[in-house]
Every structure is written in C-alpha cells, then in structure tokens.
Amino acid sequence: MWLPCGGTSNYIVTHFRRRLFKAYFRDLGRRRCNVAAFMPEAAGFDGVSDRSALQEFSVSNSESFWAAVARQRLSWIRPFHTVQDCDLSRGEIKWFVGGQLNVSVNCLDRHVHTCPERVALIWERDESGSEVKVTYRELLEMTCRLGNLLRRHGVKRGDCVTIYMPTCPLAVASMLACARIGAAHNVVFAGFSAEALAERIRDAQSGTVITVNQGVRGGKVTELKKTVDTAVQSCPAVQQVFVAMRTENPVAMTARDVAMEEVKYQTNWILIKILMSTAGDYKWHAVVQEMLKEDVVCEPAAMDSEDVLFLLYTSGSTGKPKGLVHTQAGYLLYAALTHRYVFSYHDGDVFGCVADIGWITGHSYSVYGPLANGGTTVLFESTPIYPDPGRYWEMVQRLKINQFYGAPTAIRLLLKYGDEWVHKYDRSTLKTLGSVGEPINTEAWEWYHRVVGDGRCPVVDTWWQTETGGICISPRPSDADAEIVPGMAMRPFFSIKPTLMDTEGKVLTSNDVSGALCIAQPWPGMARTIHNNHQRFIETYCRPHPGYFFTGDGAYRSKEGYYQITGRLDDVINVSGHRIGTAEIEDVLNQCAAVAESASHRVFSQFVQRLPKTRSGKIMRRVLRKVVERDLDGVGDLSTLDDPTAVQEIIQGHGDLCGKQP
Which UniProt keywords apply (predicted)? Predict the structure, then answer.
C-alpha cells in the first residue's frame, strides 16, 4: 500500500525508532539486572551490562572493581584508604592499605550472628560413614577456646605457629585460632618426614607446634607425634608442642608437651564432659580440663591488611622449600570470590574439596574460601580408593555434595577401575566438577564429565599456584551456555590479565601461539614474598620479565583466545624450534589403551608399573627429573611419597634401559 504523504511516513519511522529504543533499553535493563544479580557490586560499575563487560571492567578498572568487592564482602574493623600500592618490577605488593580486619571474624563470627546452626564443616573421617558435622557456632567456640589456650601459653601477635595435623576440624580451628590472636600459621603436610618438618619449623622460626598423637589415612596409622618429637630435637626455638588425640593410643609426653583434648576428637564441648565421665582412668582427662577451662570468648586482634596470615612451603626444582607469604585481606577476599564464582557456589550447597589442608588448595578451597562465604565445606581425611574405589562417589551420595574438586591424578586412577564404581552411587546432587593440581588430559576430562557428571555438570579445569593464592584461569565464571573445551583452563578470572612471552621476552599479542605464561597486573590473592628471602622472590617471579609476574609455566592461546597450560617451562622439549610442553605429550600418551597415566621429561622414555606420587595423588616430577639427570643425591625429601618403592623401581628400570646403573 502506498503512503499518501511524507508526513505519515516520517511518523511511522519515528514511531518505529521509539519502539526499537524502548526494546533496546528494556533488554539493556534486563541484562544489567542479570549481571547485578550475578554480582551485586556490578550495579555500580559504569558501562557494565553483561558478564563479558564485567570481565573487561575488572581488568581495565582493577582498583574500582576490587574496592567495591572488598567493601561489600569483607567486614572491616577500620576501612582501607588505598586500594593497592604495587610495583611488580620490585616485588612490592600491597592491597587495601590502611584497612584493619580479623580473618576469623570474617570466617566465623559474622555467620554465627545470622545462622549459628548452619553446618560449617563436615569431617569425612578415614572410617567411611563416620562423618562429623560442626556448626558455625561450634567452630567459633572451638576456635576461641584454642585461641585463649595459645594466648595463655605465651603465643602472641606476630608469632608463627607450625601445624602438623591431618585434615580435621581441630586443624581448621588451629588455623583460625592463630588468625584470631594475630599469629601466623605454617601448616605442614602431615606426610612429611621429621627432617622436612624440622627444616620448615626452623625457617618459619616457630616456637609452637600443634600436632596429634597419630594420623589415620587409608586404614593406616602414622606416628605424627613421634615425627614431631624427632623434628624438634633440631629446632631449639620450639618451646611447646600442643598434642591432640586422633586415636585412643597413648603417646609419650615430654616436658615441652601440652595435651589439648580428648580421645574421640569430638567438637561438641558438652559431649567432651560426658566422654570424660565414661572414659575410665585415662591420663588425658587433664587435657580436656585444660581446654574446657578456657573461655568461649576470645577477643579478635585487629590486623592490618598486609599483616602475615600464613606461610606455606613449596619445593622448587632443587627440593629446597621456600616459604611463600600470604597476607590477611587480599588473600581472604580472593579465595572467597574465586570459590563463589568459579564453582557457582550458592548458600546451602555442600562443597567437596578433597585436598589436604597441608597444600594451598586445602587452605583456599577447604577452609578460607568456603568459610568466608558462610558455606558448608567437606574435610576429606582418607584416600580415593579406601576402602574401595567407590569412596568419593559414596561420599557424594551420603553427604549430598554439590561441587566436587579433585586432582587429575586421582581421576586417572579411578578411571582404571571402571565405570561401575561410579554408577553404583547416586550423584544427582552434583552441579559442578573441578580439577586442580596439573593439566587434566582429554581422556580423563571426558570420563569425568561423561561418567561422573552424567554429561550435565560443567568441568572446571582450574589453573593456579601456591604463589597465586587462588584460581587465576578457569572455564567459569562465564555464561551458562558458554563453551567449555576439554583439557583447557580457558578464561582468566576477574582482573587477571594473562600474557604470553616469547623466548626473547617479547609480548605475544596474536592468538594461536605458545609462550611463557605471565600475569600483567597484580591481584589481591598473590603471595607477597618468600619468608626471609625477598630477593629470591624478586629473582624467581619478578626479574625474568620486569613488570610482569612470571609463573614458570608455559601456555598456549588458541585461535579463540582460550588458554591451555602446557606444563613447566623447565620441562619444555624444543623440537626444530617448536616448544612442546609435557602436558601436550602426556595427553597423547594417555590416549593409548595400554597407558594408565604418564609423566614426561625431555627425551626420557621408560615404561613403569607406577609413578611416584605424593599421598595426595600428585606426581613428583622432580624425582623423575633427577633420575633422568642421574642426580640421585639431589632427589630431595621423599617422605610424602605414597609408596617409596616406586622410585627404586624407576631407578632400577632406568639403569637397565641405559645399560648400566645410574
């Protein structure tokens, strides 16, 4: 139909434009509402209308992003006046300067005010089916009693307390008690030898150690108190050792020992009194009285944002431990934010991180991240195959776990046992599956997604390090329908700016390239220094590429801009100018039906019955490197190995392969 005049035409066009504008702004409003529902702070960020824009804003306006998140998500005693004061080239990192807070208050008190009977911890003991649940109120009481006990025995602000304990509620309370009174903690994995423990105690200058009589893992008992007794003989600074009871077996006590609590490791203090009256003539009764006479109120110390929260020792390629330092506010905030958004954690969920608290994964995603968010977190004391290969999945069914976070080595191990152990149990509560520790190969990723997650749970292959404090690259957070590529970490977390460097130290700006993985700007969760050796911190992380944080890992950036970790740069194989990472080689090898798992180093090729692994399931690549280099004296501490005979078998096989003993 022809329009009779131009005026009508103009009216129709104008009316149509108005409708378009209204529709546009309605859609914009909906998207802004959606992103604000996803992250409430985003409502105050100019130009942020969706998650993609939120990510861009967090990188380009890092200070504004973290200031808003810190004010919203942490409880401050005194507000900060400067968001960050950082110079990566000099290794100077400060966040939320001028602010004061207490980490234990943020993890406990504020939740006790709103939901005191919410379960904070579910202790999945080694004995299957015997879980212990601890509410926020109970955990606060335990933390306060322990904090008062430490104070009464002379532990003061600025001291460092070494914790040598299995994963359990009292270990968590010990960490939080240190935070409450202003002492730093140094958690040492309870599988380390006396020599390794002593080295860490001495370097941390600890005057106090907390331990248990014995540990129990995989049905085996380990003599932790005896290990501590041996270790402290070469640690003259140690004045006292607090001892709790994990088993009923008595241990020898010395003049420096202080008994902490009762035989059954209960967390309900009224139950302790009942147990005392029925336990018979047992010399640990005095210990319980020692704890019970402490008040359930412990005044929290006001800590500066950059005061030390904890030291955590990690071994370099030489095996010599370095004590990485994490501080109060920045670490806690980053652990909490990554926990909530990478795993899509919601109130009421049960979060199952199966890492030991002796590692950074246990610190960030078994303790601090979940508790800062008021979550319910599982403490896993056992192994993936005790009493059988269905242990994880039976636990998922019984505890109704929603997010499961484990290591690729454990996934590969369970894959060997077949699907029936998984299908035996109901896993319908699972919503997210996570992978941590090293790159996960495609076969294991697909089995994890298809069999464990029934093809409906996203798998987040997370990349981060002890040095980073929390997850830096992961497929989530992103839109619910966003692509996830098997075996790739993919997307940087909020404010993280990954950069790839070539062999000459130049920034690689294009996609479909590989290089050294660096991070171009600071973030709150990163380590501040190496204890007693800031120069080593600078030389290791800041000097290789001035102005960038050097991770030591290699990475590939795909055509789409996704990141895939290719392994440690000191393990890269150079073939005709092409740098091939160990993860890439292992991914191909693991696709062979005859290969359960692999670990590669340079041109070394050897078939073995088993790989050397820590008790947490991580492959000890340092050991393989030293075997190949025939530097057996440089292998370092092997006390964390699950089975030391695996190393002897590899040494023997390598000698046979080379025609002589190394």
Answer: ATP-binding, Ligase, Lipid metabolism, Nucleotide-binding
599 exposure class (CB count in 10 Å sphere: 0-12, 13-18, 19+):
buried
Spell out a b/e string for 185-198, using b for 16 or more CB atoms within 10 Å of the CB, else e: bbbbbbbbebebbb
Distance (Å, whole) CA 211 – CA 585: 41
CA distances from 607 to 418, 443, 545, 567, 629 (A): 22, 19, 38, 21, 17
What are the residues whose beta carbons fall under 8 Å from the beta carbon of 370, sequence distance 6 or more? 339, 345, 351, 353, 376, 377
Please give the Cα distance from 148 to 35 (Å, whole number). 44
Q: Which two three-digit tokens encode residue 409?
A: 């080595």
* Residues 81, 82, 83, 88, Cα dihedral to 10°: -160
Distance, in Å, from the CA atom of 563 to the CA atom of 494, rounded to the nearest integer, reads 15
Residue 556: CA atoms inside 13 Å, Cβ hemisphere, count?
18
CB 434 within 8 A of CB 404: yes
Q: How far apart are CA 65 and CA 19, in angstroms?
A: 34
Would you call 384 helix, strand, or coil by DSSP? coil
Looking at the DSSP bridge assignments, the partners of residue 613 are 619
Q: How far apart are CA 223 and CA 30, in angstroms?
A: 59
Using a cut of 0.70, tell me whether the model's pTM lies above it: yes
φ, ψ of residue 432 to 5 degrees: the values are -140, 140
For 115-172, the pLDDT digits (tens) are 999 999 999 999 999 999 999 999 999 999 999 999 999 999 999 999 999 999 999 9
Question: Three-state SS string across 629-658, please?
Answer: CCCHHHCCCCCCECCCHHHHHHHHHHHHHH
DSSP structure string for 285-320: HHHHHHHHTS-S--PPP-EETTSEEEEEEEE-TTS-
DSSP type of residue 419: T
